[in-house]
Amino acid sequence: MTDFKKLIEAEVNKVKGTSRVSGDSQRLLRQFREAVWDVHHAGQPMPGDEQEDLVMTSTQNNILNIQCPLTMKPIIELTNPVRCQDCRHIYDKDPIINYIRRSKAPNCPVAGCPKVLHVARIVSDAYLLMEIEELRSSGPGATNASDVEDILDDDEDLVDDDEDGDNE
């Protein structure tokens, strides 16, 4: 009878033996990945390197800019915020409409955005207003989405005030 387990182990060992990835190149590859990770995620651990349990709060929102690029007002202070449906940038309504009407082919005023703006594509929707309200509520006194809370597995925070055991 054929022992498939031994055949598989032999094939795995053969592949491991002919692999060009040695211990040194594994270390170099790891260092390279860490360097690339640090460029894009400075101060954050690489996936798989977490040492503690983390509780994540909402980290996604569709707010691409925090200021109107024309008025430089924070979007949480805009009285009539609108969003371009093409590039998703947020503006103060009157200044962006005036900007579009003054130009023949107005590009989005956000640096690096290649989209051409059209009045018909500038809208205010309920979702935008909810996102801005959520951003307002996460102001200086509220919990920041980047805050991390430690979770303790032991009961050290639950120590009874009466440690000597007598219940008076």
Q: Detail the poorly predicted runs.
A: 141-148
The class by helix and strand makeup works out as mainly alpha
Q: What is the end-to-end distance?
A: 74 Å
Which percent band covers the strand fraction? 5-15%
**How many H/I helices?**
4
Number of strands: 5
Mean pLDDT: 75
What topology, given as strand order, has the largest sheet? 3-2-4
CATH topology of the domain at 75-137: Herpes Virus-1
Q: CATH-wise, what's the superfamily of the domain at 75-137? A: Zinc/RING finger domain, C3HC4 (zinc finger)
What is the name of the CATH class of the domain at 75-137?
Answer: Alpha Beta
- What's the CATH architecture name of the domain at 75-137? 2-Layer Sandwich
Q: Could you tell me the radius of gyration in angstroms?
A: 28 Å
Q: How is the biggest beta sheet arranged?
A: 3 strands, antiparallel
Share of helical residues: 25-40%
- What pattern of helices and strands is seen along the backbone? HHEEEHEHE
